[in-house]
C-alpha cells in the first residue's frame, strides 16, 4: 500500500538520494518528482541524473511491488543490485545505465518475466551472462555494453522479440551464438568474440564456404584419395605463393604499397603500417611533405562546421616505423587509428594547445580529438608526460583514452562531453530561449570542478592545472562537471601558453609558462565569480575601463550592492541567496591577491559541499525536471 511505498521511497532518499527533494510531510508520494502512481500505487520511479550515489539497501524494492518502470540511469549508484528487485514482477522497463553497479547480474532479474527493456550498460557488472536471460521472453531491448562481463555469450534463442541488443566492450570470448548472428558487429566489438558479423572463429569455416556442401553419407575416403588431395593442395599453395612472390617483386619496383593492417599488439596497442588506406573518405592522399591529415584538419578548421575526416599525417611514421594509437587503462575499449582516420569530424574550436574536433566513428562512438600544436619536447619526454596524464582517473576529469605520436602529428583522444563547455552554457544563446541555469546546477558544477582540481592537486605538491577556465570545464550528459586540458601545459612551448586568456591569471603569474596550485585556485575563484555573475572574465563588463572580474565584484561589494553582482537568472531563487553569498565569499577568498591567503583546494571543496548541503536541506530550489521518454532518453523542461 501507499504508506509502505512512501516509507520505502524515504528510505531510498535517505540512503542514496541526498539531493532528491521529496517533501516528507506531503500526504502522498505520488506528487513527488520522478514518482508516478496509478490506482493508488507507485508504478514509476524515474530519477535520471539526480546525483544518486551509494548502495541501494535491501527492503526498498521489496515494497514497491507494482513498479512498471524503474529509471535510475546516469547516477553514481554502486554495489550490487538488491535481490528484492525480484518481487517487482510488474516491471516492464529497467534503465540503470551509467552507474557504478558491480557484482553479478543478480538472479532476481530473471524472474521479472514482464520485462521489455533492460539497460544495464556502462556499469561494472561482472561475471557471466546467464542463460537464464531466456526466461525473459518478452525482452525487446537488452543492453549490457561497457561492463566487465566475462565468459561466452549464451544462446538466447528464447528471446524471440529481442530487437536491440548490445554487449560490446566487455571481456567476453568465444563464438557468437547463432541466435544473435543477425545483429551488427557494433553489438559485439571490444571483446574477444568471433563468428557471426565478426571474423569467423578459428576452426570454423567462414559462412559462404561452410554451406552444407558435404554429403551426409559416408565420409570415409580412401588412403589414395587423401594422398591425392594433400599433394594437390600442397602444389596449389606453392603455385599461389610463387605467383604472389613475383607480383610483390614487380610491385616493389613500382611505387604503391598495399594496405596492410597489422594485428593488434599487446592488447591495447594497435599498429598500422603502410602508406595507403582503402577508404576513400580520407582526403589526405595528395600534397607532399607534412601529411594529409594536417591538410585535412586545416581544411576542416577553415571550413568550420563542414564535416571532413580527422586525419593524422599518413606519412608520419614514428621512430619504430609504425603508426600506433596508444590506449590508457581498459585495454578492451579499443578502436584503431584507422577508425579514427575514417571518422567524420567537426571542428569544436581552437584553443591554446591546438584544435579540438568531434569525431564520429563508424561504429557510432563519439570521441573528442585534440591536435596539439607547438609540442616542444622530445618524443621520450612527451610519452613520459602523457602517460602521467593518462593515468589520472577521477569522475570529474575528462578521461584521456588514447594518444598518437608521430613527428608531424600529435593527437589526444578524449571522451566526448555531450553538454559542451561551461563557457558555452553560461554565455551562449542568452535571451534566446535557452534554459536558465539554476542554482542547484551551478553549485553542482562548481563542486564537480573543485573535486577534479582537488584530485589533480592531491597527486603531488608540484602538480597543477595551469589553465583553469570555463571553456575547460566540460559537462557530461547529466551536467556533471569534468575538468579538461590538465597536464597539457607542460607539453607545449612557451609561445602557446603565453596566449592564455588573461582574465583568469593570478596577479603573481607574470610568466604564463610557470604554473602553481595557488595560481589554479585564483583561476578557480574567477570561475566561481563567472558562475555567480554570469559574466565572462574577459568581457569589459559594465565598466568602460576593462577592470577584471574579481576587481569589479570587489567594488560592487564595497558599495554594498552585493545582490547586483549576481546573475539575474539566479535572482529568481531568492531562498538560496544566503548560499550564493557564501559562494561569493569563497570566490573572493580564492582571488586573494597574495597566494598564501588563498584556501587550498581541499578547503574549497569542503566549503562548497557545506553550502550546498544547507541549500539542499531547505529543499527549495527547483531542479531542472527531466522528462523521460520511453526509450530511456530524456529532455529537460524547466
Ligand atoms: N572532450 C571534449 N568534449 C566535448 N567538447 C570538447 C572536448 N574538448 C574540447 N571541447 C570543446 O572544444 C572547444 C575547444 O577546446 P580546446 O580545449 O581546444 O580549447 P579551449 O578550451 O577553448 O582553450 P584551451 O586550449 O586554452 O584550453 C572547447 O570550447 C570545448 O567546448
TrEMBL record:
Residues 342-611 form the Protein kinase domain. It comes from Protea cynaroides. Pfam families: LRR_1, LRR_8, LRRNT_2, Pkinase. The chain crosses the membrane at residues 225-248. It comes from the Eukaryota. Coiled coil: none annotated. GO terms for molecular function: ATP binding; protein kinase activity. Keywords: ATP-binding, Leucine-rich repeat, Membrane, Nucleotide-binding, Phosphoprotein, Receptor, Repeat, Signal, Transmembrane, Transmembrane helix. Its main location: membrane. SUPFAM superfamilies: L domain-like, Protein kinase-like (PK-like). It is found in: Membrane. One of its GO terms (cellular component) is membrane. Residues 255-286, 612-638 are annotated as: Disordered. InterPro entries: At_inactive_RLKs, Kinase-like_dom_sf, Leu-rich_rpt, LRR_dom_sf, LRR_N_plant-typ, Prot_kinase_dom, Protein_kinase_ATP_BS. This is Protein kinase domain-containing protein. ATP binds at residue 370. PANTHER family: INACTIVE RECEPTOR KINASE RLK902-RELATED, OS05G0588300 PROTEIN.
